[in-house]
Write a structure and sequence with these properties.
- By secondary structure, the protein is mainly alpha-helical.
- The chain has one domain.
- It is 77% helix and 0% strand.
- The chain has 12 helices and no strands.
- The relative contact order is 0.16.
Length: 273
């Protein structure tokens, strides 16, 4: 019942924010922006985003194998792609992480409780990395923090992340190694975002746009596949990054397209499970 309610809530939030966001812009201008895209840069954006997801699968593989859940990188990546497909294309489903857990339990007879714990750690460490970056690139858009306060927040964040991970896994080094994987994931996603900006002819305010992108990434869990909320966040940030609302929304929209294209291959492996 709770899963159905959460799925219904996600779909409702998605529909509302899609409607609200696109009702606030000039659709003709948006169409013209899309028509003038540099497709070459968009292609590179898709490739780099897909590569970021491969690195994400390596992080999960590392976490699983360091907790005695042995799985090959190839099979883990297949499960990861299936999870991506579920998250993006199947509204109201059990969710990508839950389906990955189901497949692992079915294939290896691993404890569901242990799988859920490690999938949570995988997501948790990724969130710690997102917040870490936000602490250091925030330049007064939300808070006005000096370097000492930033360093204190960062230190506390890393300490809490380490303690929680160690408590759940009894592994002293797992947090920091998985955190390093997370840094690579974000670097490749930033590169994907920059390719989107270049495809739109945007060549300024990269740091501010990356900050907005990170905020949208955190909030995207409340909608289906991040659709609607991502575009809404960029709409509200248009004046901050000094571009038109239509151009700002295009950033979020194209990132959603990249995520969708990268998630599509999951159906190939889903048919065989």
């Amino acid at each position: 019942m709770k899963k159905r309610f959460f799925s219904f809530l996600q779909i409702t939030v998605t529909i509302f924010f899609v409607w609200y966001t696109f009702s606030k812009i000039n659709l003709i201008q948006l169409k013209n922006i899309i028509n003038d895209l540099n497709i070459n840069f968009l292609f590179f954006s898709v490739i780099t985003y897909f590569f970021s997801q491969y690195i994400s699968s390596l992080r999960l593989h590392f976490i699983l194998n360091n907790n005695n859940l042995k799985i090959t990188k190839a099979l883990n990546f297949q499960f990861y792609l299936i999870g991506m497909f579920y998250n993006f294309f199947i509204p109201g489903g059990i969710g990508g992480d839950a389906y990955k857990g189901y497949l692992m339990n079915k294939r290896f007879k691993w404890s569901i409780k242990n799988i859920i714990k490690l999938l949570f750690i995988d997501r948790f460490i990724g969130l710690v990395m997102l917040i870490s970056i936000l602490i250091f690139i925030e330049n007064g858009l939300l808070l006005n923090l000096n370097i000492l306060i930033r360093f204190i927040f960062f230190t506390l964040l890393i300490f809490v992340g380490y303690i929680i991970t160690k408590k759940l896994t009894s592994n002293n080094s797992l947090f920091f190694k998985a955190y390093a994987y997370s840094a690579l994931i974000q670097l490749t996603q930033f590169l994907s975002l920059i390719f989107i900006l270049l495809s739109l002819g945007i060549s300024k305010n990269f740091i501010e746009i990356i900050f907005i992108f990170l905020i949208s990434s955190i909030l995207s869990i409340f909608s289906f596949g991040g659709i609607g909320i991502r575009e809404y966040v960029f709409l509200t940030a248009a004046s901050t990054i000094d571009i038109s609302p239509e151009l700002s929304i295009s950033i979020g929209l194209l990132f959603t397209v990249c995520a969708g294209i990268s998630s599509a291959p999951g159906i190939i492996y889903l048919k065989n499970k």
